[in-house]
User: What shape does this take?
Amino acid sequence: MKEENLTFYVIRNEEGKYYKTYKNYSRAGWVEDIASARIYAKESMPRGKVTVYSNQNPKEPIPEIVEMKVGEVKVIDQKARVAQAKLKKAHEVAERKKFERTWELKAAQERLREAEREIERLKRER
Assistant: This one.
């Protein structure tokens, strides 16, 4: 498999805080943890955000764009986990079908008993 050079971008202000966007009912703003920051895959989006921020806040210093290059790419094989999940799902489906067949059998037996009682009642009424 071809090794890819991945580059990501974040916006950082002069205080060392990173920009995050509005997400999951939390406000946009500056956070200290880079894991909470908005990470961009292309440079154009953070450039636009910096321009808009600078135009809206002309007295504040212009934020900088931090470029991060991934040095190590680790591929996590998911074949065993997915195979196990498929087996579990198949087992659940089989158990569900078994339950449904049992339930249908009980319902059919109950309908049969009711029909036999109805036949007996009709025979007595003759």
